[in-house]
Amino acid sequence: MRAFAALVFALWASAACAGWRGDVQAAKLVGEGDFSVLGFTLYRAQMWSERVPVDYDERFALHIVYAHGVKRERLADTGIGEIRRLAAAPIPADTLARWRANMMQAFVDVGPGDQLSAVYLPDKGVRFYAGERMTGEVDDLAFARAFFGIWLDPSTRAPVLRRQLLGAGQ
User: Fold this and answer.
1) Residue 127 within any structural domain of the chain
2) pLDDT score for 18
3) Is 117 a member of any domain?
4) Average pLDDT rounded to a whole number, residues 10-34
5) What is the DSSP string of 98-133?
């Protein structure tokens, strides 16, 4: 009985600890860098992928460690603003409202040292984590590509960070 209990605990612990890394088990760190505004670092971002260059045909993960506190409402509003700015064509208001609601469900308020991660799931969408706890999954490929475009689109507001995340350095 004791051996069975130990096995159950070990299986539970490994599943609980897998978190976002469990979604990209064979991934390696592609690149990382800081996002700063007016000299203040807001967060450190890392890109994890099995394939280099990072490709929307494979799973990859964006992992962010925050240096300052940010409310989830601000994260969602900033994300929607960037998605709207980067869109090749106007996105319908009801789509943006749905995407913001998805972000509000998946995001949490963050403080210094808190970690948020997003895993791109090809042909499906995106899975979000706060620390190692999954906070949401959005089965919408258009949303997933728009969300990751905030960092990966060539027109991102942080081109140096984009190059660093993609492993191209400064």
Assistant:
1) yes
2) 75
3) yes
4) 77
5) HHHHHHHHH---B-TT-EEEEEEETTTEEEEEETTE
Mean pLDDT of 92-113: 98
Read off the amino acid at residue 125: G
- DSSP strand pairing (40-49 vs 133-138): unpaired
Query: Using one digit for the tens of pLDDT, what is the confidence trace for 50-93?
Result: 999 999 999 999 999 999 999 999 999 999 999 999 999 999 99
pTM here is: 0.88
Which domain covers residue 86, as residue numbers? 2-165
CATH number of the domain residue 67 falls in: 3.50.70.10
* Residue 170: inside a domain: no
- With b for 16 or more beta-carbon neighbours within 10 A and e for fewer, the 115-135 pattern comes to bbbbbbbeeebbbbbbeeebb
- The domain total for the chain is 1
Asked if residue 149 lies in contact with residue 120, where contact means CB atoms within 8 angstroms, the answer is no
